[in-house]
């Protein structure tokens, strides 16, 4: 899922149109939001900040970083648990 996908998802979750979000971010039309939502490209930190404030969401969540970190931590915990069980079985 791209940043644009997450922005679109959150905007819809809040019941906002692209025009509503554009207005909240200080853009003159919805075309900027449309481009951001359709793009797979990274957006600037300034734009990310504006949008995250307007959507009342942490920029980390819009970037998908929290989800990635949670998956990594789960994989790490699973591996550590397996190693501990292995060590206990060898005793």
Explain what the structure shows.
The chain is an all-alpha fold. The protein has a domain at 3-64: Orthogonal Bundle (434 Repressor (Amino-terminal Domain)), CATH 1.10.260. Helices cover 74% and strands 0% of the residues. The chain is built from six helices and no strands. The radius of gyration is 19 Å and the shape is rod-shaped.
Briefly summarize what is shown:
By secondary structure, the protein is mainly alpha-helical. It contains 6 helices and no strands.
Ends distance: 45 Å
Main sheet? none
Shape: rod-shaped
Q: For the residues shown, what is the average pLDDT?
A: 89
* Strand segment tally: 0
Radius of gyration: 19 Å
Number of helices, counting only DSSP H or I runs of 4 residues or more: 6
Structural class: mainly alpha
Beta-strand content estimate:
under 5%
Q: What is the ordering of alpha helices and beta strands?
A: HHHHHH
The helix content, as a percent range, equals over 70%
- The assigned CATH architecture of the domain at 3-64 is Orthogonal Bundle
Enumerate the spans where pLDDT stays under 50 for 5 or more consecutive residues: none
Q: What is the name of the CATH superfamily of the domain at 3-64? A: lambda repressor-like DNA-binding domains
What is the fold named in CATH at topology level of the domain at 3-64?
434 Repressor (Amino-terminal Domain)
Reading off the top of the CATH hierarchy, the class of the domain at 3-64 is best stated as Mainly Alpha
